[in-house]
């Protein structure tokens, strides 16, 4: 299967009921993720006899300058999670000429509506991998889903990479036997730092312009991506969160995070897109690691 | 005076003798800067009874993949300077089509030769401002100088900003009474983070495409920029380096450095140019702060 191309998107677009359904799903997923991550925090604190486990702190934001919509960030700083952000947003408006050229379905009408969820976790322990998951639904005169999930360990570990990929493959296979291979390759291509000739992490899946013609199937796949991510990542975290680490491991993690920051600022389309379209700075840069070294 | 425009560059280019003269100057300036910064380290260590002041560690590099030239980085990690890098390089080759369109004098011949010096200092103390200075000479079928110096305090201080700007103004005025105002405005425009609607620091000067038609005058101005920077910055460092600071000041510094990292990766032309033309990653990213927080 080839990567989906904007030019192959079918005509027609999601209706109000469908848009609401996606938006509601992202809210539900956000609640589940926050609940699970807070539970992991509590488990670790119980194990280490630490009081005051981290809690998510929510913060609403609205787009300013007369732009439509807004979102809600939830950020937790804890003992397990040095920084983890879960952001949902639903925005609408008109694309500037600069952008509409590269966005499907905006030739005659630059109006857009978009909803999405984005999760980035930077754990305290260098033995617990960082993770990113994002799914989104974009509506212009066409409509499509996009997203993915990828894992960034400090010290790559074959078992974790295999566990993560196997779970994603199983999730993808339920929907289309060709998805996993295609989206895995797309992920490897996307999360790549050309200036260092290295991948950001150990990959996962990445997809865009998904519209099979059946909204319910595509939403169903989107749900699978979110739930698979949540399930497999919490398993990987539990495998490692109680293990002791060294100062050297931590130093290694802070340097590895420099690559993460480089990727997000130099190459990430979402970051560039958000910063150039007057998005919410705090929400866009929520993904930045809490503490980074370039020694 | 308007900013210099590539289209106004005179015909003709620097000869071998002139190129050598600039290259030698950058080596001399590098030696003076390293000597002065090591002296400041020693002064602070003497004052605080600390042994082992930081020393610059040199590292040569050559451009690989058959590209011509190379350079030498000198990096110091010390008690006063958490990280300071002084990089000189002299490179030559041919611009790719992608770049030559935006570079003067390459329409009929894409060959270039360039030499430059770049300094970025990130002090340990949040009371000592970070600083950047760069000067360069580019030769295609035309030739020109560019560069500047700018100050980035954690906690802006009117006196330091005034001292820094007054010194640059005095230096500029010796060469052309219109330089300072023009280059100051250019600096403010260049070191600006649109997504945060804030300047990177308190400014300084920035210029490019400088070719008055008299090589010796332009080299002389380039020398003034380097020496003025060295003189005024060491004075500012001495004003503050022995003052105690709080944890809160340090936290503020680490967050401020996040803006510095954002600027360099999102907007800095030198960084983007270097990364896209197969430059030396370590030398290009030498400017990144040693320790950064995005809380």
Commentary on this structure:
The structure is a homodimer of 295-residue chains. Chain A is α+β, with helices and mostly antiparallel strands and 295 residues long. The first copy, chain A, has one domain: Coproporphyrinogen III oxidase, aerobic (oxygen-dependent coproporphyrinogen oxidase). The first copy, chain A, has a 7-stranded antiparallel sheet. Chain A has a two-stranded antiparallel sheet with strand order 7-8. In chain A, β4 and β5 form a beta hairpin. The longest helix of chain A is centred in the first third of the chain and has 32 residues. Chains A and B meet through α6 and β10 of A and α6 and β10 of B. β10 of chain A pairs antiparallel with β10 of chain B, so a sheet runs across the interface.
Put the structure in a nutshell.
Chain A is α+β, with helices and mostly antiparallel strands and 295 residues long.
What structural keywords apply?
295 residues, alpha+beta, oxygen-dependent coproporphyrinogen oxidase, globular
What is the CATH T-level topology of chain A?
oxygen-dependent coproporphyrinogen oxidase
CATH superfamily of chain A: Coproporphyrinogen III oxidase, aerobic
Order of helices and strands of chain A: HEEEHEEEHHEEEHHHHE
CATH architecture verdict of chain A: 3-Layer(aba) Sandwich
Mean pLDDT score of chain A: 94
Strands ordered across the widest β-sheet of chain A: 1-2-3-4-5-6-9
Structural class designation of chain A: alpha+beta
Helices and strands in order:
Two copies of one chain form a homodimer.
Chain A: H1 16-47, E1 57-62, E2 68-76, E3 81-94, H2 97-100, E4 111-123, E5 130-139, E6 143-152, H3 158-173, H4 179-190, E7 192-193, E8 198-199, E9 204-210, H5 215-240, H6 247-266, H7 269-276, H8 281-284, E10 291-293
Antiparallel strand pairs in A: 1-2, 2-3, 3-4, 4-5, 5-6, 6-9, 7-8
Helix pairs in contact in A: 1-5, 3-5
């Amino acid at each position: 299967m080839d990567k989906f191309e904007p030019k192959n998107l079918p005509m027609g677009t999601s209706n109000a009921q469908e848009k609401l359904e996606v938006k509601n799903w992202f809210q539900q997923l956000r609640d589940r993720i926050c609940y699970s991550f807070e539970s992991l925090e509590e488990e670790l604190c119980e194990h280490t006899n630490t009081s005051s486990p981290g809690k998510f702190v929510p913060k609403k934001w609205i787009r300013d300058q007369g732009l439509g919509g807004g979102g809600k960030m939830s950020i937790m700083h804890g003992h397990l999670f040095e920084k983890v952000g879960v952001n949902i947003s639903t925005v609408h408006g008109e694309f500037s000429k600069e952008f509409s050229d590269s966005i499907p379905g905006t030739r005659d009408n630059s109006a857009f509506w978009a909803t999405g969820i984005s999760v980035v976790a930077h754990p305290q322990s260098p033995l617990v991998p960082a993770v990113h998951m994002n799914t989104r639904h974009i509506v212009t005169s066409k409509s499509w889903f996009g997203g993915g999930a990828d894992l960034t360990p400090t010290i790559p570990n074959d078992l974790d990479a295999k566990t993560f990929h196997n779970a994603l493959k199983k999730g993808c296979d339920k929907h289309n036997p060709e998805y996993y291979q295609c989206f895995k390759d797309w992920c490897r291509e996307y999360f790549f730092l050309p200036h260092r000739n290295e991948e950001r992490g150990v990959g996962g899946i990445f997809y865009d312009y998904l519209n099979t013609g059946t909204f319910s199937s595509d939403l169903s796949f989107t749900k699978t991506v979110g739930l698979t991510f949540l399930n497999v990542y919490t398993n990987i975290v539990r495998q490692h969160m109680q293990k002791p680490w060294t100062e050297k491991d931590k130093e290694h993690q802070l340097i590895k995070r420099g690559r993460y920051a480089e990727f997000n600022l130099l190459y990430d389309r979402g970051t560039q897109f958000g910063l150039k379209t007057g998005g919410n700075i705090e929400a866009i840069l929520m993904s930045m690691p809490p503490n980074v070294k370039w020694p």
